[in-house]
């Protein structure tokens, strides 16, 4: 009898697990579309709220639909006292991704409709998370600086309100626009690790909060969303543009992963990088500040060195990490900013998974010891 060893796809690389109508990377043109619209087009013409609506409902909203959607999002922002007190009790040293993960888990425990997996109920929960997660992230940003939280302002849009809650002031329109572009670009990226995590949890018919809690855990890792923080730590470690090449050569010789570079899907450059890089360059120009110029020169030197040494291009986390620093956020806030955006993509996928669900349960090839008897000392 002959046995054939099944082909193993470690990391599920190249494995197609399902269909999706939410987004796709078009390899031939190296472009990304959400529901058929190129992200470049969306970033140039739409607000983040319009993109959230598009991802959830499949079409861009008309004026009336957008007006109502915005009003509902703004009304859902405030946190109740129990949530605020619970989050304030978490250790000040804990990472804000742990705070967000805990918050989502707690929102689930408080929601009497937690187990209602209907599309309408899940859309309502998704909107509530979209509205509340920035409030949690901003309060935690201020908590790390020993400052009291600032309540959301219902007269402000999603992006502006976040700056208001973090800093008590609004930055220039260029900064708000750059932030909004980052939110649009981060919103959705098909079957990435955190979205796939959300789909795996959903496939067991568990609830939306459990799926999002798990997705936050997956996004936190430095090979995924955590890379935007790691980029800034790396730039701080290198320090000066003139050391970029030497630092890179030593890091590669030590077999280190260079954060913000490489991608499982894009092998010739992440389609989102040019637009994010352009917005980040505008921030540097408008900052008119020697430190911003130093960081931008270092960022560029490392990008060129990485391309010439390894032929590896940056991913979205590379320009986004620098942009978030230039906007004034502390480094631990960077991945939570990604969550505030990706909550839209995750929840769109949760709804889609439920529309044609099949339990996600792959196989593994066993390579442990052969069957054996429990030894005498253990009997
Ligand atoms: C929004 C996002 O989540 S984007 C991704 C953010 N993550 C990062 O920036 C972390 C750094 N990047 C990486 O670790 C990888 O590029 C990943 C995990 C994103 C994708 O990796 P994979 O598709 O699994 O490719 P894999 O890890 O097999 O790498 C292929 C080769 O390129 C090399 N490589 C890929 N990325 C990098 C990198 N950032 N630094 C150094 N070498 C790299 C690998 O060492 C490997 O080389 P080898 O074949 O000589 O061993
Ligand atoms: O698609 C991926 O593997 C990672 C990524 O870029 C994202 O989630 O935005």
TrEMBL record:
Q: Which GO terms describe its molecular function?
A: citrate synthase activity
Return any one Pfam family short name.
Citrate_synt
Coiled-coil intervals, chain numbering: none
The domain of life for this entry's organism is: Bacteria
Active-site residues?
Answer: 263, 317
Q: Which family does it belong to?
A: Belongs to the citrate synthase family.
Keywords for this protein: Acyltransferase, Transferase, Tricarboxylic acid cycle
This protein's pathway reads: Carbohydrate metabolism; tricarboxylic acid cycle
Organism from which the protein derives:
Streptomyces benahoarensis
The answer to whether keyword Cell wall biogenesis/degradation applies is: no
Write the protein's name: Citrate synthase
List the top taxonomic levels of the source: Bacteria, Bacillati, Actinomycetota, Actinomycetes, Kitasatosporales
> Gene Ontology cellular component?
cytosol
Q: Which reaction does it catalyse?
A: oxaloacetate + acetyl-CoA + H2O = citrate + CoA + H(+)
What InterPro entries does UniProt report for this protein, alphabetically?
2-MeCitrate/Citrate_synth_II, Citrate_synth-like_lrg_a-sub, Citrate_synth-like_sm_a-sub, Citrate_synthase, Citrate_synthase_AS, Citrate_synthase_bac-typ, Citrate_synthase_sf
The processes (GO biological process) annotated in the record are: carbohydrate metabolic process; tricarboxylic acid cycle
């Amino acid at each position: 009898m002959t046995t054939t060893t099944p082909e193993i796809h470690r990391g599920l690389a190249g494995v197609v697990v399902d269909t999706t109508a939410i987004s796709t990377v078009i390899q031939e043109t190296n472009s990304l579309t959400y529901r058929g619209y190129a992200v470049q087009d969306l970033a140039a013409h739409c607000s983040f709220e319009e993109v959230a609506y598009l991802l959830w409902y499949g079409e861009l909203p008309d004026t009336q639909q957008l007006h109502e959607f915005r009003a509902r999002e703004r009304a859902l922002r405030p946190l109740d006292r129990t949530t605020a007190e619970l989050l304030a009790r978490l250790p000040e040293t804990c990472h804000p991704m742990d705070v967000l993960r805990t918050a989502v888990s707690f929102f689930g425990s408080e929601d009497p409709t937690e187990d209602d997996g209907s599309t309408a109920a899940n859309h309502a929960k998704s909107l509530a998370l979209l509205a509340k997660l920035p409030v949690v992230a901003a309060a935690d940003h201020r908590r790390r600086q020993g400052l009291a939280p600032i309540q959301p302002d219902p007269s402000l849009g999603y992006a502006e309100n976040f700056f208001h809650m973090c800093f008590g002031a609004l930055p220039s329109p260029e900064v708000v626009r750059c932030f909004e572009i980052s939110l649009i670009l981060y919103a959705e990226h098909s079957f990435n690790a955190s979205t796939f995590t959300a789909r795996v949890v959903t496939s067991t018919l568990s609830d939306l909060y459990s799926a999002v809690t798990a997705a936050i855990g997956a996004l936190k890792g430095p090979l995924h969303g955590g890379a935007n923080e790691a980029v800034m730590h790396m730039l701080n470690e290198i320090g000066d543009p003139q050391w970029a090449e030497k630092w890179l050569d030593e890091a590669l010789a030590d077999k280190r992963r260079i954060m913000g570079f490489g991608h499982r899907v894009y092998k010739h450059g992440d389609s989102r990088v040019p637009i994010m890089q352009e917005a980040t360059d505008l921030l540097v120009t408008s900052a008119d500040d020697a430190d911003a110029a130093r960081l931008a020169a270092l960022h560029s030197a490392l990008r060129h060195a990485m391309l010439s040494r390894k032929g590896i291009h940056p991913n979205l986390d590379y320009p986004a990490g620098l942009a978030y620093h230039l906007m004034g956020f502390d480094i631990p806030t960077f991945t939570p900013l990604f969550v505030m955006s990706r909550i839209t993509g995750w929840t769109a996928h949760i709804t889609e998974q439920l529309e044609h669900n099949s339990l996600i349960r792959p196989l593994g090839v066993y390579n442990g010891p052969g069957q054996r008897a429990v030894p005498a000392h253990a009997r």
